[in-house]
Amino acid sequence: MRILRIITVFVLLLACSNDQGQRNPYLQEIGFRFEINLNLPLYSPLTNPGNAVYIGAQGVGIRGVFVMNTGFAFRAFEASCPNHSPSPCSTTQLDGQTAVCPCENFEYSLFTGQQLSVPQDGNRYFNMLEYRASQSGNVIIISN
């Protein structure tokens, strides 16, 4: 029985991994909380699946946040391009269901946050920084 315990502990220790992925060096993660009332005309596009809105209010994300109604849930992503340090051209622009970085025309899906146009140059590229989005009735709470 003792050998079985030792083997179990050994297997559990080998199964553990400290690989937490690489943190994005361009974007500072900041804390905030913002409530979106879907009854307000400004946010009414979010009542339909497939629509996204840009929220550029002061203190919401680094350069604002895109909120997307995926049809199953709401998702929120940082509007600053994840592959550039914040600069005048690094705020992505809403283009339907994608966000486009005007610096190098990188495109990102607002359904998943994944970069759609990954250059084949061997460099490390990052997907969009996602924020927590939860719904309570007609209010969506975006936070980090």
UniProtKB/TrEMBL annotation:
Protein name (database record): Rieske domain-containing protein
Gene Ontology molecular function terms on file: 2 iron, 2 sulfur cluster binding
Gene3D superfamilies associated with the record: Rieske [2Fe-2S] iron-sulphur domain
PROSITE patterns hit by this protein: PROKAR_LIPOPROTEIN
Phylogenetic placement of the source organism: Bacteria, Pseudomonadati, Bacteroidota, Flavobacteriia, Flavobacteriales
